Amino acid sequence: MKIIQRLLVAAVGVLALAVPTAWAAGEYYKPNKHVWSWEGPFGTYDRGELQRGFLVYQQVCSACHGMEQLHLRNLGEQGGPFYLAEYPNANDNPIVRAIAAEYIVEDGPDEFGDMFERPGRPSDRFPYPYANQAQGRAANGGAYPPDFSVIVKARKQGPEYIRSLLLGYDYEPPDDLEVRPGNYYNPYFPGGLLAMAPQLQDDLIEYPDGAPATREQMAHDVVTFLAWASEPHMEARKRMGLMVMIYLLALAGLLYAAYRQVWSNVKH
Ligand code: HEC
Questions:
Q1: Measured from the CB, is residue 229 less than 6 Å from ligand 1?
Q2: pTM of the entire structure?
Q3: Residue 104: strand, helix, or coil
């Protein structure tokens, strides 16, 4: 009994210590709920959202955030924003080739041992915005803009959190919080202060499909794109899961029929 008593006392002690520290660490808001087309066992990405989300990433976020684990050709693979059934090999996909060609990539060394620059190709990785991490930090007041390859998976409630964060700059900071130059108040960020300025304003970019580029729409689209980037093969995985379920159900039916057959002559 004594040991249980002691354990209880210890547990209460830990709680008493932990709860106020969590509160003191800064009041921050839970991410707002949001509906995504790709939720649930049958959810798929909306191609329009993916394409617009890529545009937001390309024109806004990619100035600071890399996506090192993705190649440009991923954009044209099945399930990707610019997949075309006529081009099963994404390296041949004309949209992806055009997107890649807009980038200048360092390559080499050539036969003289020199590095040279050339237009990007679908087989290149997404270009990295800085020469190295230290430069990324220096350009952002010491805070490193995290890589986006798996950011949606790397944060708790990733999609909702990133969306809320992007739209969460309109709050007044509490009186006792000092917001230094280079820092911005955003209650969705743990601690409330981050080194990223607000990024989205209405009509910041123009969507070629004519969708209104409101802040909400851009946040929704870019998060959808980042969710795809974190799991480019989600749709294939869900399809496979469905097929496995159907197979298992059919197998269960067969096994049940066989069981009935085998035991049909046994009298009780
Ligand atoms: C001018 C540079 C810059 C641009 C452009 C930019 N960010 Fe950031 N971002 C940062 C920096 C710096 C941080 C790190 C902030 C910190 O840790 O205080 C950051 C952090 C983040 C984080 C991580 C928050 C966390 O939990 O760690 C997310 C998500 C994010 N940015 C999303 C975006 C999106 C989406 C866009 C495009 C719409 C974008 N950013 C554009 C500089 C930028």
A1: no
A2: 0.85
A3: strand
